[in-house]
Amino acid sequence: MAIIGGGIIGICAAALLSEAGRSVTVFDRTGICEETSSGNAAAFAFSDVLPLAHKGMIRQLPKWLADPLGPLAIPPAYLPKLLPWLIRFWRAGAAKHYETSLATQAGMMKLAEAEWMSLLDRSGTRPMLREEGSLEFYESEAEFRASLPGWAERQRFGIGFRHIEGEEMAALQPGLSPRFVKGTFVPGWKTVADPKLLGKAVWAYAEKLGARFEHARVERVEAGADGATIVLADGTRRTASKLVIAAGAWSHLLAKNLGDRIPLETERGYNTTLPSSAFAVKRQLIFSGHGFVITPLQTGLRVGGAVELGGIDRPPNFARSKAMLEKAKRFLPGLDPSGGREWMGYRPSLPDSLPVIGAARAPNVYYAFGHGHLGLTQSAATGRLIRDLVLGQTPPLDLTPFRPQRF
């Protein structure tokens, strides 16, 4: 069987299918975890159960769009193309969908944590896990109070946290600007040493089990009762008994070949990775009011986040990564901003904040894409669900909310 996409979703599916004895070939135009999966914020965000559509983003839209370098940007020329997606996003955030969306995301996160902890052990990658927790900061009492309903919802699902201030906050992150009056510490929050290195290590495990990689650009796909055909950019064809499309932000283009129109949009994210010596950051720091995080990695200090709804064809606007770095200097006085590497990646996002996991209209094809900000977090769970679908086993979650045809 074949998987299109060598990012973290595709390789987790490859690892679990290889464990089940399937012969798997992964196709990718670049390599294993060389694109969006290489530059993310390195978080296992298992406690992030609030769907993006319900986080008040629509209310913040006018304020954020007024700042071209703020947490959210939409290039004016792209707005007409984006408008149908924004309308779907607005509808998904309606109160009547809240409980179902929250329960679905919480269930997915519970499975994600269990599957990742197990996969880390089986693949020998547990030493790459970091369990220092996270710190989220607030610049005013009003901002802190506005966060409380979200924390109350997390508490419903057994997620531990404590609100902090003063000396305790300073002890958990020395050198923080006094502009932050309160914070929330989540002790169970996890990160990884480096997302690209973790992905390559999981792939090495899959390779030992027999998985293969083919460096190729996929032009289109076809499917029939006897299996699937992959047409490569050089005109050659590959056949497979079953096919998984896990090509991130490009997945909907392949799905369209098969008669599935899926409203995927791309949240372009930016970061700068500084040398580790830039500042002694103890754990992931979350500045939600500004839409970015700072993560200490084995390979440096990563300052990144924000959202630019701009599709897959526009050139990067690295003024956005520079703006986050300027804020980081103010938030952590003493931060050395020199020697950084800028990066931009494509988060494949669906308007209801849930991925597409399930069978295509065409036979023998499955979809696994659209995880937005949570691709790394939910990748092992997605691999488990895809494995069960391919093997004809009953998955541990009700997949109805993730159906490709729900739109």
Automatic annotation (TrEMBL):
It comes from the Bacteria. InterPro entries: FAD-dep_OxRdtase, FAD/NAD-bd_sf. Keywords: Oxidoreductase. The keyword Oxidoreductase applies. GO terms for cellular component: cytoplasm. One of its GO terms (molecular function) is oxidoreductase activity. PANTHER family: GLYCINE OXIDASE, SARCOSINE DEHYDROGENASE-RELATED. This is Amino acid dehydrogenase. It comes from Mesorhizobium hawassense.
